[in-house]
# Entry
Amino acid sequence: MKNYEYIESALIHGGIYGDERTGAVNTPIYQTSTYMQDGLGKNRGYEYSRTGNPTREALELLIAELENGESGFAFASGMAAITAVLSLFKSGDRIVISSNVYGGTFRVLDKVFQNFGFSYTIADTTDLTALSQALTPDVKAVLIESPANPLLTVTDIKAVAELVKKREALLVVDNTFMTPYIQRPLELGADIVLHSATKYLGGHSDLIAGLVVVRSKELGERLHFIQNATGGVLQPFDSFLLIRSIKTLSVRMDRHVENAVELAKLLKEHEAVKTVYYPGLPDAQGYDINLKQAKNGGAMISFELKEGYSINRFFESLKLIALAESLGGVESLVCHPATMTHASIPREIREKVGITDGLIRLSVGIEHGKDLAADLEQAIREAKQ
Ligand SMILES: Cc1ncc(COP(=O)(O)O)c(C=O)c1O
# Structure
């Protein structure tokens, strides 16, 4: 029986709270690969840690509760989580992906799964007509990010779920940018939700992890089979770290978003800035849809500087905000999608969808907003040619 109602409490008390045997308020780190059995075929629920580990299980129960799903699975990285989900399909099947998704998602489909006859189609999932046209009879799943990486485009998750259901395909949502604190895709009709937990869920740029939650028992059984068969599981210590991080998700996200709203406004009004992509700005693509399906616009911003400003000089002049891959940590980071996170996408596809060489992606951290604003402003001044 749950004795709380709100997600802020679930973040702390969800899944398995504490340790029944000792009363420890935290789930212990069961750093073990195997378990003694009481006799042939007689075990205490655990046989081998690839198949099941109590610390990982506490995390898996927690994320399933937070996303309001049937069961959860923890993997060694976001890519291992995506690979496990894509392993649900077979040769001859096809998946539709949003026209801007994380470069690694595109790469694993293009360079790995395609070799096994599992094909992909890229579609603008913000446009329901374009998506309908892409739903050929061999399409077994649609994978979207909303907001998507790196242009922060918003897809109507509920509308897409209805469309996908009519074709008896599965809707997979990568919820990395929002977290269940801001958006819960299963409640909007998605079948599978996944995360690079390396990002906001981990929150401190100190671990690599992936999570998956499914809405049905049948998908749960299939995914557990794949997790055990392919083996990309999260280790007990990292599972513990992730549980610990998730406890503070709501306070971190509130501060991330508060800073992001301020910085998006600053960039929007700045004379040196050509375009700002942030779903929390009222004139952004998908602003109304995002408000219907999410608590707010999140804390990722992308932007372009006007001609006459050098992005190289901008990156080199930043003093507080670091140039680095990744996002969602307490510290603010910038990256250059064209040569970093999205470099594995061929230039012609990148340019077609708007991932230009001038695009800058900013992961807004939880420092004081005024320090972040000052750093951005001085780096933009230095970037003027
Ligand atoms: C939206 C999104 N999904 C998935 C991934 C892959 O996750 P990981 O780096 O934890 O393997 C990333 C990584 O940047 C991401 O941004």
In short: Residues 77-79, 102, 104, 145, 149, 174, 176, 196, 198, 208, 210, 341 surround pyridoxal-5'-phosphate (CB under 6 Å). The longest helix spans residues 249-269. The mean pLDDT is 96. The domain at 7-246 is CATH 3.40.640.10 (Aspartate Aminotransferase; domain 2).
